[in-house]
Amino acid sequence: MKIQDVFAKPDFSLKEIMKIIDESAKGIAVIVDDSDKLIGTITDGDIRRALLNGISLEEKAKKITNTNCVFVHKDYSDTFVKNIFISKQILQIPVVDEHMKVVDIIFFNDLHTNAKEKENYALIMAGGLGTRLRPLTEEIPKPMLRVGDRPILETIITQLRDFGYKNILVSVNYKSNIIEDYFQDGKNFGVKIDYIYEPKRMGTAGAIKLAQQYLDKHFFVINGDILTKLNFEKLMNYHIENENCITIASRKYDINVPYGVLELQEDKVVKLTEKPTINNFVSGGIYCLDPKVIKDIPDFEYYDITTLIEKIIKENKCIGSFPITEYWMDIGYIEDYNRANEEYFKIFKR
After folding, report:
1. Which residues are in the CBS domain (predicted)?
2. Which whole number is the average pLDDT over 203-223?
3. Cβ of 79: how many Cβ atoms within 10 Å?
């Protein structure tokens, strides 16, 4: 990666900043002037906070730029930088010369390649029929479709492993033998895999109930057709720190209405908005759950996670949202599958 790949100007929109962070997969945009002198930084966390606070992606970068960001001069020592990473709890540090021109960026992950292993489990839903992807899924379960040079499920497991989450549960039903033959106990992939067998279609929450013997700590649930560069550790930390029953990893989804939209009071037009963009957050198919919610799931029956979430909301318990600002793709249709293959090596082979 060239450091210029993460450079941005103060008048860039937040949408452009989000694209830079997404495509670089480095979690940061460095805001510079026309001479590449450091102005500040915007991290994926800054973008998430902006979205949660209702700030539009059309706003300028300067609105949320951290002008008091941490930086080091180019004569830094490794020990000095490591101490900053630990004391400041940050993941990226710009490096500047004597004129404050950005000449490099140091990334925490480059200094600490082995993430600390966590005890939390991740339950991956891999038992669906994949009917919307037929004929591709007539002989193979959807999570085993190859995107890039490997099955979707392998990429999901690798991403979790790289963040230290090595306790993997895979919920299986349709053509489960193909998944088990490929991954076996997970040892060859650097993880430990146990399989949850759905005797019939159980729904996401129903599969959670079947797996409850493993789930005594906060855990992930992930759809088996999702490709993402989401920082799973940040998601888990956010979930625990906010004491949520469930945290939904969400994706901003805009709907562009190609017409003038009328606002009516009875039969009178009081406002006309030409071709508005409607902003929504949608579920990204990734969740963190407190094991306490499992008691709310009935035994041995189909129960979807949306039903569980609605139940918890009615009980006035806390459901959180964690915006996904990194790459994310739900492979639900043939066109999604083709696009994922086109993008894979750019996103995941860095």
Report:
1. 1-57
2. 95
3. 8
Neighbours of 48 (CB within 10 A): 18
DSSP string, 261-292: EEEEETTEEEEEEES-EEEEEEEEEEEEE-GG
The more confidently predicted of residues 22 and 166 is 166
Minimal CA–CA distance to 170: which of 203, 211, 202? Answer: 211
Q: Where do the domains of the chain lie, and which CATH numbers do they carry?
A: 3-111 (3.10.580.10), 118-348 (3.90.550.10)
Q: CA 225, CA 337: separation in Å to the nearest integer?
A: 10
Give the model confidence (pLDDT) of 268-286 as tens digits: 888 888 888 877 888 999 9
Tally Cβ neighbours within 10 Å of residue 241. 9
Pair of tokens at residue 284: 């990204």
Are 210 and 111 spatial neighbours (Cβ–Cβ below 8 Å)?
A: no
How many residues make up the chain in this entry? 350
pLDDT confidence bin for 143, thresholds 50/70/90: very high
CA distance 224 to 125: 5
Whole-angstrom distance, CA of residue 88 vs CA of residue 206: 41
Confidence of residue 185 (pLDDT cuts 50, 70, 90): very high
User: Rounded to whole angstroms, how far apart are CA atoms 165 and 155?
Assistant: 13
Predicted TM-score of the model (pTM): 0.73
